[in-house]
Amino acid sequence: MSEKTVTELENLILEIEHRIEDLENTSLKDEFDRATEIKCLKEKQESLQVRLCSRLTPYDIVKMARHPLRPLAADYVNMMVNDFVELHGDNCYGDDKAVICGLGRIGQERILFVGHQKGKSTKERIACNFGMPNPEGYRKALHKMKLAEKFQLPIVTLIDTPGANPDIGAEERGQAHAIAENIYEMCRLKTPIINIVIGEGGSGGALGIGIGDKFAILEYAYYSVISPEGCAAILWKNAENAQESAKSLQLTAKDLLNFGVVDEIIPEPLGAAHKDPKAMANILKTHIINYLEEIKGIPGDKLIENRYHRYRRIGKYLEG
């Protein structure tokens, strides 16, 4: 019997989930038989999830990072942050909904949260430009981060974007300059910064809020200089080679850890974050608290020095 493909395994898991849901919502005379069948189905579902996760290719992981039910930055804020107050506007052009900023409390710590926001419904996605920020989004983020530095508040950024908005309007308003300025200024902020890739980490769009003291990535997220489709379109003039380009780009969490680009891989619940968003939020919250404990006592000047050396260490090369 031939091995099942990832898609076939996903369909099998979905069928089992529907069967479990039907059994849980149906009243049967024999409750013991129903409980036994549900238990067996859940065990089979778990076994299939393990098989599925072991079979994922780099491009499968990219698709997992884009899953429509995967929790977004706003979801994590709602689940793990208390007293959240959103901050708007860049004091220059307008408020970009593709970037969410706000003050809140996680555990006992007051923090500034900055994250990409893709939206869920069609209307929200259009308003958020599918998570592709404009220059005003990056300027908004930097304005709030400087505010956090002023009041000595740690910064947590949640990265989830296919890339910055590449259209003419964004370029006319200084997209490249806005991203470059954010990278430059984040290198100099005298306050702890934690960066976490929760879904897609695309190119300069991710870098615009992705410089800090701790850089982590969720297990089924990716971080890359270009999307697999974009790379395939350039190299092969055909986006259908995305599977091959995803492998060549080495963009998975394991690849990035091996290269020293990320400091840690944050594990996801069985089947990925969208299977159990609440559990994922609890895992993420625990890691953020641990990172804060690790770096919050370091003086500002030392943070900047460590940050500089951290990025200088990335990349290996030979001198001839």
Characterize the structure shown.
The protein has two domains: 6-55; 62-312, 2-enoyl-CoA Hydratase, Chain A, domain 1. It is globular, with a radius of gyration of 21 Å. The protein is 49% helix and 16% strand. A hairpin with a 2-residue loop joins strand 2 (99-106) and strand 3. Strands 1, 2, 3, 4, 5, 6, 7 and 8 form an eight-stranded mixed sheet that branches. The longest helix has 24 residues, at 31-54. With 320 residues, it is an alpha/beta fold. The chain starts with 5 loop residues before the first helix and ends in an 8-residue tail after the last helix.
Q: What is the gist of this entry?
A:
The protein is α/β, with parallel strands linked by helices and 320 residues long.
Order of helices and strands: HHHHEEEHHEHHEHEEHHHEHH
Hey, roughly how much beta strand do the residues contain? 15-25%
* CATH class annotation of the largest domain: Alpha Beta
Radius of gyration in whole Å, from Cα? Answer: 21 Å
Provide the CATH superfamily of the largest domain: 2-enoyl-CoA Hydratase, Chain A, domain 1
> So how many helices?
14
Report the uncertain regions. none
Shape: globular
Judged by helices, strands and strand pairing, the structural class is: alpha/beta
Number of domains: 2
The total beta strand count reads: 8
CATH topology of the largest domain: 2-enoyl-CoA Hydratase, Chain A, domain 1
Q: Averaged pLDDT, please?
A: 88
Approximate helicity band: 40-55%
Return the CATH architecture of the largest domain: Alpha-Beta Complex
The biggest beta sheet reads: 8 strands, mixed
N-to-C span: 53 Å
